[in-house]
Amino acid sequence: MPNQKILYVTTELYPYQEDSNMATMVNKMALKMYNDGNDVRVFMPRFGMISERKFQLHEVIRLSGMNIIINDLDQPLLIKVASLPNERMQVYFIDNEEYFKRKQLYFDDKGVAFPDNDERAIFFARGVIETIKKLNWVPDVIHLNGWMASFIPLYLKTFYKDDDYFKDTKLVISIYNEKDAAFNNNIEEKLKFDNIQGLPALEKPSFRNFIGESLKLVDLVLKGDESLEDDLESMYIGVNSEKKDFVSADAINQVY
Known about the structure:
Blueprint: E1 5-10, H1 21-35, E2 39-45, E3 58-59, E4 67-70, E5 73-76, E6 78-83, E7 90-95, H2 97-100, H3 117-135, E8 141-145, H4 151-156, E9 170-175, H5 187-193, H6 207-215, E10 220-223, H7 230-238, E11 242-244, H8 252-255
Parallel strand pairs: 1-2, 1-8, 2-7, 8-9, 9-10, 10-11
Antiparallel strand pairs: 3-6, 4-5, 6-7
């Protein structure tokens, strides 16, 4: 079914990250749908290991310049874009010097989780939503990949609940065996600033518990890895949203 507008939101994408199943899956799914004649766009963070020169990223001035307010602190949003190497499909990068300049994803060189991972996820989720609206492009499907992307349904169903821009958009989420970590920097206060309160995940806030929260808010849950670790498998089994087992990238069109 061509001519669908499909937005992939991911934290990893080949070739910007090379050694992960998520990066490979999102690359293959997006290219499959793009080559089938759909209007496909991909959004991801511009982590510091992504070379702007090598991958020919350039800033989109008309989309940049917004500020995202997190817990009463203004953070400037920069939008950069590039074509996937050897392809014509565009990838949009959410950037901010404070949150995404560092070379690592979520953990420092000693394996300690960054204390601002919660703010980075909030900034990324709101940055994607605001930029899509600024593009004046309404996706038929938003396919979410990675724990950071799981904040998007949370915000769409709460902070943006009275905004009908995405009212006809279907939300799909893929679950991957990502490393878990706790949020230890008062995420409850930061979400409360955006009028988001009372989430069960706040009792023990972590990457995976926020994934579990988002599974309740989407239209379809997929396994991103063929076999999930026990706690993720339990989340998958227990969720009431429609779900499908692992689907190969070549067959992803059947999902949409």
